[in-house]
Amino acid sequence: MSQTEPDAAAQSQPHISDTMTGTPASANAPAGASIDEPANVPADASSSDAASGGNTNTKHALHTNLKRGMESRHLQMISLGGVIGTGLFLSSGYTIQQAGPIGTILAYAIGAVIVYLVMLTLGELSVAMPVTGSFHVYAEKFIGPGTGFVIAIQYWLTWTVALGSEFTAAGLLMQRWFPQTPTWAWSAACIILIFTLNALSVRFFAEAEFWFASIKVFAICAFIAIGLLAIFGVIPMKGYTHAPMFGNLTKDGIFPNGFMPVFATILTVNFAFSGTELIGVTAGETRDPETAVPKAIHTTLWRLVLFFIGSIVVMCALIPWRQAGVGESPFVLVFSSIGIPYAADIMNFVVLTAVLSASNSGLYASTRMVWSMGHEGMIPRWFAKTTRHGVPLLALCAAMAGGLLALLSSVIAASTVYLVLVALSGLSAVVVWIAIAYCQIVFRKRWIASGHTVAELKYSTPGYPYTSWGAFILCTASFLLVFFDKEQRFALGAELVFIVLCYGAYFVQRWWRKRHPREEDEPLRLP
């Protein structure tokens, strides 16, 4: 991970325009460089770079100021770290209450299928065009510049709002040990900690997140193993004189609240799975994306199925579904019922670590998106400034704004506003997923139309076009089905209004720049 090494993703990777026009990758390489040699271009050349014939001397010079060099193990664990957080440890309690045990398992299974289809489409795009800020760059190229702007803002919203949720969750978890201390105080402490971790080098972030995620993976495996022992009566369970087995799954019927809540709560499941797309954000900073990205996609899927659905089955078997909620983590509730000394406190610490880990990856992703938008000129370019250590500090500060939402929710009502934050973040994630699926559909059509073959792709989406259209339709349906959840219907309206405002901001920005044209700013660095 030497900082002096060239970005592996820059080697032999075509520009976005190359994939559409058939221009050889060597056409954009410096004179004297062969296709097999590392071209002196950034790993994250964007569509505007392609449009200008690969000129990266000014607009894209800031890319070289970032200290990058992630490996495959970092890519996999960062993706898992962004996913395994409040979605599993807290939101799952809300989902169980709404949809019932079997309904929750079904909702998570449907969500797993949706996210896997989206990741397959993202894999093709990320391997063909490994760029930082990939989602909005793809949308700008294959849908339109206005949509590219909207997707960038949406993804920023996904993680900044999620950050508020994670910080709120951290405050709630600390209440177990310090019930007299206000939630907002612990949320503020978490904000300071996570900001400090991200203000250091990216190399430190990647290693720290690798070990954070490893702790979570080990804890979940232990939870499932101990839970299974309790289910089969090997470990005694409070309130049971016999092995609980799986009677709680169907005690009040298969769907105690009806079938519609299963679809309505898919939004909460989407929030739980949001973060898998971090693979696309880090693809432009990962060595050998042709191998690392597909591997991360496939290993992440089976791990999510095991961790999420396995944990949900254990929770639903051991906890009466009406006792689940967001006031206390279902994980802590299970261990308290098992009666293992200090087990609940240990699990509470692990859950807290998981929340901090998800916040860490989320702040990284949000910072990268803000930095990319500033670098692309979508927002003021001073957001793209970096320190002499290569840290986009101003973008980091903007991304941390989501932490204020944590303080607001903890002061007003942590157990209600938190759910609204989940809804907003989940909807924004689904909007991004819809765009990813559609971009891959357009990309493949243009690739074939330009005279290329599928065999030329280093990684192609299996089952195209059914996989791609399936991802697009299922994501769109899950977005619209939020209407049937009365408690989260407001979030749907707010999200639609926000999308309109984003488009409005883009057109106002474009109008202003036409009236006040200016030359591109020179790359700036903070002292």
Written description of the protein model:
This protein is an all-alpha fold and 527 residues long. The chain has a single domain, classed as Up-down Bundle (Amino acid/polyamine transporter I). Helix content is 64%, strand content 0%. Helix 6 runs antiparallel to helix 7, helix 8 runs antiparallel to helix 17 and helix 15 packs across helix 16. The N terminus and C terminus are likely disordered.
Oligomer: single chain
Structural class: mainly alpha
Describe the global form.
Answer: globular
- Give the SSE order as H and E letters: HHHHHHHHHHHHHHHHHHHH
CATH fold label: Amino acid/polyamine transporter I
Q: What's the gist of this structure?
A:
The protein is mainly alpha-helical and 527 residues long.
Keywords:
527 residues; mainly alpha; Amino acid/polyamine transporter I; 20 helices; disordered N terminus; disordered C terminus
What layout of secondary structure does this protein have?
Blueprint: H1 16-21, H2 47-51, H3 72-83, H4 86-89, H5 91-128, H6 134-142, H7 145-174, H8 183-199, H9 202-231, H10 260-264, H11 266-273, H12 278-283, H13 289-318, H14 330-338, H15 343-376, H16 393-399, H17 402-412, H18 414-449, H19 466-480, H20 489-515
